[in-house]
Design a protein that fits this description.
Radius of gyration: 21 Å
Shape: globular
Number of helices: 6
Structural class: mainly alpha
Number of domains: 1
Helix content: over 70%
Largest sheet: none
Order of helices and strands: HHHHHH
Length: about 210
């Protein structure tokens, strides 16, 4: 009975340690992806959709999965708007104009991830990445059109806004696919390596306790 209790406790400890490390790696990967927005990159080649999908798929605490990509997005915006693009604004900028539509796109993407990634495979990652790019494109350009003095507030004006935005959609699709592959692939590799290492350590402890 004592042996079974001891074995059970070691098994629980193994899983808890693996989950703890997995959560830390997941949070770290999202933050690293957010930093990629600050580095020089092609226009719209960003990890926004990939961050939201990855957070939803890899973080078990759903409120963290929804909130973390948004916070990372906001913090990178805070730096970009006030350091890189400060010449385009007057005073300190807390939120990017049209942020409601962009953040809504992130939330919808996270919800897609929560629904799709019950089981993770390459086909689902690709499909969800492409969907997130299209959702973000539709919402962000709608935000650009709404209330715009450049585009007429008519259906033809909305269509013109979407047509103008098509020039940036290609890079958005490529960026989401690239960063999704990097995040999901890198996380899977490191999780397996760390899991194997923890399992080896647990087995060594088990052997020493049994001898």
């Amino acid at each position: 009975m004592h042996y079974l209790s001891d074995l059970l406790s070691r098994t629980i400890d193994f899983h808890s340690r693996k989950q703890s490390l997995s959560l830390k790696w997941a949070v770290g990967f999202v933050l690293i992806a957010a930093l990629a927005r600050i580095l020089p990159h092609p226009v719209n080649f960003t990890p926004l959709g990939a961050m939201a999908l990855f957070g939803a798929a890899s973080i078990s605490r759903k409120w963290v999965a929804l909130l973390l990509p948004l916070v990372a997005f906001w913090m990178s915006d805070l730096f970009l708007n006030n350091m890189v693009y400060s010449m385009y604004y007057e005073g300190f900028v807390w939120f990017t104009p049209g942020y409601i539509w962009m953040y809504s796109g992130m939330i919808l993407t996270s919800l897609i991830g929560l629904g799709v990634f019950k089981k993770i495979n390459a086909r689902r990652v690709i499909g969800a990445s492409l969907s997130s790019s299209v959702i973000f494109f539709l919402l962000s350009n709608f935000g650009v059109w709404l209330g715009s003095t450049f585009y007429p507030q008519t259906l033809s004006g909305l269509v013109a806004c979407y047509v103008a935005g098509l020039a940036f959609l290609q890079n958005s699709l490529a960026g989401d696919l690239f960063f999704a592959a990097a995040l999901f692939g890198g996380y899977a590799y490191l999780s397996n390596r760390l899991g194997d290492r923890i399992e080896e350590e647990t087995e060594k402890v088990t052997v020493r306790s049994d001898s």
